[in-house]
């Protein structure tokens, strides 16, 4: 079994060898640009990891892994337009560096190129591979739309929030692992379990992300504390706080989230102080642990020697620790 | 062989039976909305026509035909954002009726759903089917980007213009026919010829479209004369005129295209008068006839009884006449 680091190195090499030097340059350069911005390459690594787990040469899964990474970057390019984001991984977003037309079109092209890469996979089960890929792809779009809808809603429940993050971020982690399993011809039960492992880990990751925005150590997390609060993002902590607060605290919290306050630091401190008062961190931690337990329960049920599964378990734990 | 009208009726029925009643509604309703706006359904009809020509039951090609229509509508939704268009087939565009986020995301989803439909095709050659589809898909994106680039360029040649319309509109007509041929297991030479037939017909259609903007009968064409001129669109006629004009006429023409004039009617009359003076209509007609001849030459080379090919020839001629 190869480690995360080994697989990451393979993915990095493969990404560098992708050749999008076609014309018109405005359309193809953003693909190379986005892929050069780096990142954990979690999704493509998961594709390879699942293939490795089920005993197939990871070479067979490289194209599918790249497909997932290109697809993921396509969603980032379009999301950045919708979120009006200027910066991605410390660099200008595509619609800022070029313009909105380029961002829409090169995003569209990346989606097409992702399917092209997926189709390069040597498999007798291309139809299933695409079905897994497209199901997650459609769900990512659904999750993003639901997230957008949340912005103008004041009655979002924790349950709805979990559904949203499941669609927007978790299913693609599950699908990445599932693709690796399909290529390795794993049996249906194992395929299902590895998908559920990835999905539940993904939910736990997102909860962790929400927690760190309010309770992380800024330097370690690599971004400023309270970014979600400053932009009125309805995170799990905020929704839990609303759920647990009395009428007066609820009203204070809702008022703080009414406007994008100019004096953001004061706002962030006030909100975090309410979060502490209501002990939402404990609640969020409990929920995170629930999804982690779900994930590991599915991992346990996979019919593969325990020693081989350790790498997946360790990866999940390490990523969670690296985030904290 | 089934007629255009018969195939059109089948496509209309099939489109009505597509079910996009999922959640969130903002994401799925625009698909149903766009598909309900009608149109000639030229691309899906061509898929069926090619299958019919090569002797396979058109039922086998319905899903691929729908895939092409959904893909085409995805490009329209995104193009309308880029073109800042308010109206599509007399109805509000998706980004006007909903908003830009919905238009980007539902467009993305339509692209995914198009691939899903394509994958429902019963074929041993799914990989090839997707390759044909995606090649045209990527080229449509390229064509749209090149068209966008033309807006800020003053040195576009007629050759570049033909390349642009080939990518932006013609290749998808060729690919539609090719998909029908692939599903019917046509031989490679015939597949190539039917693609070239569609591509060249597509170029001729677009030239006809450019001609009608200046020289059509407004009522018959269904849109106001001079729309392209009013919006400074660099059509074939405009580029031909620049090519044929002396320094003084060139300067007049370029000045007329410098601003979106408030007094549009005067501008349109002035431009058309220059077009007449330079006889660009004849030049455009010659070019159109060239591509029509190319198209029919490829059609002739297809190894199928002549009588069967007549329906494709007649369809092309009728569509061209209906436009004029």
How would you explain this protein's 3D organization?
2 copies of one chain form a homodimer. Chain A is mostly helical. Chain A has 16 helices and 2 strands. A two-stranded antiparallel ribbon of chain A has the order 1-2. In chain A, a hairpin with a 2-residue loop joins strand 1 and strand 2. The longest helix of chain A is centred in the middle third of the chain and has 28 residues. The radius of gyration of chain A is 20 Å and the shape is globular. The mean pLDDT of chain A is 95. The interface between A and B is large, with 37 and 38 residues.
Please render the helix and strand layout as text:
The structure is a homodimer of 324-residue chains.
Chain A: H1 4-17, H2 25-36, H3 42-53, H4 62-82, E1 87-88, E2 91-92, H5 94-97, H6 100-119, H7 126-151, H8 158-183, H9 188-215, H10 218-221, H11 227-230, H12 236-244, H13 247-256, H14 264-277, H15 280-301, H16 306-323
Helix pairs in contact in A: 1-3, 2-6, 3-4, 3-8, 4-6, 4-7, 4-8, 7-8, 8-9, 9-15, 9-16, 12-13, 12-15
